[in-house]
Amino acid sequence: MDRQSYLQVKEVMDGKKPADLLLRNCNIVNVFTGEIIHSNLAVCAGHFVFWSKTGRGKEEIDVEDKYIVPGLIDAHMHFESTMVQPRDLLSEAVKHGTTTFITDPHEAANVSGVKGIQYILDQTDNAPANVYITMPSCVPATPLDDNGYELTAEEMKSFANNPRVLGLAEVMDTEAVINGDEKMFKKLEIFDQNHIIDGHIPSLSGINLMKYAAAGIDTDHESITFESALEKARLGIQVLIREGSAAHNEGNLIKGIMNSEIDNCNFSFCTDDRHVEDTVKIGHIDNNVRIALSLGMKPIDAIKIATINTARRYGLKHLGAVAPGYQADFIIVDDLTKFNVERVFIKGKEIKGKNDFEGGPECPEELKHTVKIPHITPDRFRLPVDEKPVHVISIVPQEITTEDVLIRFNPTDNFQAYGDFKKIASIERHKNTGMVGVAIANGYGIQNGAIAISVAHDSHNIIVIGDNDNDMATAVNEIGRLQGGIVIVEKGKVFDSLPLPIMGLLSNENCDKVREKVEILMNKAYEMGVYRDIDPFITLSFLSLTVIPKLRIIPRGLVSMGDYGPELIK
Question: How far are the Cα atoms of 78, 273, 380, 482 from residue 525, in angstroms, in the given order?
């Protein structure tokens, strides 16, 4: 707290002037001691002043014995995965009680480099929420990826002293870290002191995990099993419990924490990749809290994981608690066992609606023309198959991992989809190279058409899946015409689309319009046979992410992810 703010707070403490806001009859959740304190609560100059049986305020609210909870914190998320502009997502997530967002703009960076990162910073500057970023560490994710930009350590230096930059984002190139790669360590060394370094550890264990931790990695959000999470937590790595639109990891981890009775201080909540319609329907970090409660976790333990644990790990010493001197970010909750957020305050000011988030800068025109592809003909998806076993991408429901399944098909000069086996392709879209990688996938389920999307982690080339080459080509060409988006083609005709003209990642429409369109597209995808235990679009968008096990498709072809990094399958 600066001196001027402190002197204002001190005057209220001394009884010389009223607080800006006095909340009467509060049940204050104390995340330090695990207690519920019944008291009045004073706020001045955007900070908590004191709790007391007395006090007076310029404005007073009778809370009527409801609960005052610190503002919730999302430890790791990507605005780009929501498909709406950052301020639009904030307007939805904040009303669910999330007041602080730690975002990794590596999707924007993979398409548009530093201009994409600056766009995220500019869009969230002066927004009525706390938005911090971590600098993308692996752009591109691996040397095999064909993305739109290579972000260097030298370019990162200009961001390192920005107070909104907390450190280095998820370090996905685990092989480079373990082997002590010089280019990688130049990035790590920029953020080695007084910064956080986020990890990305889907498969490391044993001595390789210890090497990775020894390099200075502080967090990870890729744990699927509690055993994996526990191994990381024992090394001091903060485990970010992910509950996104495609990856649902919270159940296993919360059950493990409770059954093992370990200290939960090394655990936080995050959404990672979540569509805006899921935030509208089920909530944001408040949803993580409710899931934990439904599994039997004590309310204050779940609240700690959603607040103070994250604030402490990321060095946000002014956030995460209701106590004197802390920034007055808080929510009013009716019942700790149900955790319905009734009101939200940031810096002592109530957030009342979407109007609070209007006024962000316009997107630069240069970020709106990023899809560069030739006209795609059906023969570009030709896939010869001989008598040898073929690697098939097998989708795992509720996860973003896949299995690598070897299957023999009848020899043919062009594989035709049948049963559960569909054709999938990745088309390079940044430099108009014309590269197209083609493979076979199962576990998706589409019939009589194709779905294409320009959001395809992490390089964000176009990815398409379908049961015939003609519809796949039609879908990809429509993506090119729209300059990004989601397209569904059925029986030779474009059914509908969601344009994503900003970097091929984001819509320029508001949340409500995007949510309505995604709902139409999602219902159609399920009607066309996509399995209901997967998210049609987020699941598809992850099938090109080379740093997640086990099998992926990129413009260069099939990639297998092992313990030592990704390798092209010949």
Answer: 24, 20, 24, 20
Structural domains in the chain, CATH included, are: 3-65 (2.30.40.10), 77-286+355-361 (3.20.20.140), 367-568 (no CATH)
Q: Is 37 left (phi over 0), alpha (psi -120 to 50) or beta?
A: beta
Q: What is the dihedral of CA 350, 353, 356, 357, to 10 degrees?
A: 130
pTM score above 0.90? yes
Find tokens 């008598």 and name the residue: 387
Cα 327–chain centre separation: 25
User: Mean of the pLDDT values across residues 219-224?
Assistant: 96
Residues forming a β-bridge with 332: 68, 343
Question: What's the rounded Cα separation, in Å, for the pair 27 and 200?
Answer: 38
Candidates 223, 216, 233, 183; CA nearest to 200 is 223
For 551, half-sphere exposure in the C-beta direction (CA atoms, 13 angstrom radius) is 21
Distance CA 92, CA 77 (A): 14
Ramachandran sector of residue 196 (left: φ over 0; alpha: ψ -120 to 50; beta: rest): beta
Half-sphere exposure (Cβ direction) of 331: Cα atoms closer than 13 Å: 28
Q: Could you tell me the pLDDT band of residue 275, with boundaries at 50, 70 and 90?
A: confident
**pLDDT value at position 193?**
80
Q: What phi-psi label fits residue 84: left (phi over 0), alpha (psi between -120 and 50 degrees) or beta?
A: beta
DSSP 203: S
pLDDT level of residue 355 (50, 70, 90 thresholds): confident
Q: Dump pLDDT digits (tens) for 339-352.
A: 999 999 999 999 98
CB atoms within 10 A of CB 335: 10
Q: What is the pLDDT of residues 444-459, one digit of tens each?
A: 999 999 999 999 999 9
User: How remote is the C-alpha of 116 from its chain's centroid?
Assistant: 16
**Average pLDDT rounded to a whole number, residues 169-197:** 92
Neighbour-count burial for 519-558, b at 16+ CB within 10 Å, e otherwise: eebbebbeebebbeebbbbbbbbbbbbbbbbbbbbbbbbb
Q: Are 461 and 426 in contact (CB under 8 A)?
A: yes
| pLDDT range class, residue 565, cuts 50, 70, 90 | confident
Q: Which two tokens stand for residue 157?
A: 């230096």
Contact 246, 397 (CB under 8 A): no
Q: What mean pLDDT, rounded, does the chain reach?
A: 95
Look at residues 486, 479, 477, 499 and name the one whose alpha carbon lies nearest to residue 535: 486
